[in-house]
Structures are given as structure tokens and as C-alpha cells.
Amino acid sequence: GVAMPGHFILKYDDGGEEVFFDPYNGGRISSRTHCLDMLNQLNTE
């Protein structure tokens, strides 16, 4: 898992591709870029 301020994301890495799952948003699949954007937004609030 990936701990974020006030949030938690699950990460799957098959050695070639990373997939991030957001269990708090219905298991939505996210990219690393989206997770970094979300982290930046959380850090500015």
C-alpha cells in the first residue's frame, strides 16, 4: 500500500507496470501520475 495524508492507495507492480487502486473510491484504478497529482493537491490544502 501507499500511505498518503488522509488517504490510502493500494499498489500492484508486476515488474513492468504499476497499477494503483483507490479502495475509498470504489476501487478506481489510477496511474502513478494521477496519484502524484492527488498527493500534490493534498499537500497544498
Describe the overall structure.
There is one protein chain. The chain has 45 residues and is an alpha+beta fold. The protein has one domain. It has one helix at residues 32-44, and strands at residues 2-4, 7-13, 18-22, 28-30. The chain has a 4-stranded antiparallel β-sheet, with helices on one face. The longest helix has 13 residues, at 32-44. It is globular. The relative contact order is 0.24.
Main sheet: strand order = 1-2-3-4
Return Rg in Å: 10 Å
SS element count, helices = 1
What's the assembly state of these chains? Answer: single chain
Strand content: 35-45%
Secondary structure: elements and pairs:
Blueprint: E1 2-4, E2 7-13, E3 18-22, E4 28-30, H1 32-44
Antiparallel strand pairs: 1-2, 2-3, 3-4
Structural features:
single chain, 45 residues, alpha+beta, four-stranded antiparallel β-sheet, 4 strands, globular
Outline:
29% of the residues lie in helices and 40% in strands. It is built from 1 helix and 4 strands. It has a 4-stranded antiparallel beta sheet, with helices on one face.
